[in-house]
Amino acid sequence: MPAARKRAMERKRIDMAKQAIKGLGVSPGARVGRAFRYAPVRLEEVPETKAEAGESEQELRKLQEAKEHCSRELEELVKQAKEKLGEGKAAILKGQISMLNDPAFYPLIVKQVQAGWSAGTAVRKVTEQTAALFENMKNAYMRERAADVRDVGTRLVKHLLNRKGGQLSDIDREVILVADDLAPSDTVQLDQRLVSGFVTRIGGKTSHTAIMANSLGIAAVVGAGAGVDLIEDGMLLALDGDSGLILLEPDEAETAASLAKRQEQEREKRELAAYANRPAVTKDGYRPEIAANIGSPAEAVGLPERGAEAVGLYRTEFLFMNRTAAPDEETQFRAYKEAAEAMQGRPVVIRTLDVGGDKELPYLNIPKEMNPFLGYRAIRVCLDRPELLVTQLRALLRASAYGQIKIMVPMISGLSEWRRFKSLFAEVRQQLTAANVPMAGRVETGIMVEIPAAAVQADRFAREVDFFSIGTNDLVQYTVAADRMNEKVAGLYDYFHPAVIRLVKRVIDASRERGIWTGMCGSMAGDPLAVPLLIGLGLHEFSMSPASLLAVKRRVGQLDQGECRALTERILDMDTPEEVRAALGEFASCLG
Predict the structure, then answer these.
(1) What is the pLDDT of residues 200-253, one digit of tens each?
(2) Which of 38, 405, 429, 458 makes an SS bond possible with 510, Cβ 3.0 to 4.6 Å?
(3) 105 and 216 together in one domain
(4) Catalytic residue chosen out of the listed positions 70, 382, 521, 564
């Protein structure tokens, strides 16, 4: 079938469906605006051409100028990323600067030009060859670096071609960005004053695009698929980052409804600001701790003023990424100390290194596995390579002298692992004490409950740990056997599954009986719909994305724990996630 006819038929199908396409809503917000089709330069556009005789020197000058432009551009993007998103996100772009200066990349391009190829062709050839090398590596982390190689090569080509139009720098009015995908270096450039939202062809809820959109507060829909082809440059769109729905050329009523929703969201945002300095307390006096999840010390700066009473999860793996070797003790100490000081004496729960699964470090040479989420990861790696854990524990204990640091261990499945960790912890502490190194008199240690085996044995663990923190993101996938990265089984992945709720209850009950506390640092903790259930279960600490703090604080203040307990008793007798959601939805509607 001719492409034009196929497109016409698809457009007719969309018209019949009220001009709507559907993707995954990954960053909330209702937006109306004109589409801006992002048309980045593509390597395949560069023709394979030879330089004219005697023009190699000129091509080399063009190449060097393009490299200098790229270097300045990337340095500026790193600066923007640090200011907007923190050190962890900026590290992605630092890696691209390293690639641009890698002796196994740029000098090869120079050699291609010296061999008689045009600068553009040389960049394309070397970029494609280098990316292919990465893509064929066994290590998943290294395979993913192919995208960074192409991003750098494309950036060089853009400057060589002096490409204008369809670029992010051309945006001079408020738009909704439309693209196949957005690279990290694209996303960090987005100006929230001009890009009110974006929609991409590919992407999932845990993609870097989704994470950065949330960090920037830009409404976003990803994974819209072939529907993106129906969006023309300048077309009016109504985008809903909550539902994932995008209306093409909405009528007056649809436009008015979307604008009204945005105004309501802005009003709610202003209303929520009043909760920043208020404690979260139920009507009958129950006061859980409201904490934030972070990935770098920079993300802790200003958190107390934004409503965080603690850091419930500091993901230390970002400190280990985009390096050729693990960070030394001094580097780690400075990072943990900075986070502790930023929280001004409030609790900071720091998770020990959690790598493996979808988070790989090339310098650890972890072999490729058939089921990496069930394999060699997190505490299993650290106990197998104790030098990693000892260095981290020394840095953590030293930093404890500067704030209220607590240490959390991920992926614990049994008491044997926990006891090995505690033995190593005691040994490190004894060494530091003998050397008269300053540290806190007592540092709480606990486990992240994300494996059902740990939840089932919570009563035994409660005798030996200082706290639990329930990681619902992994606990759900392990309980219902549904990969949380796989959109095809997304319908099964639900933290309102009765089995998950019963495991959560088991952990909280065990902690209460032993007089210790239980927190939750998975996405369930930041869902206002789930708050009454968790209050009814007696959760002590809620830890979430900083963007969710104030909405959860407000929801806690609307509740009576006695009523929540009665609701929870009813929910514990339910059979399906759908029943649970319906009950919580009805309860929420009564709150107003």
Answers:
(1) 988 766 565 776 677 677 899 988 888 999 999 999 999 999 899 999 999 999
(2) 458
(3) no
(4) 521
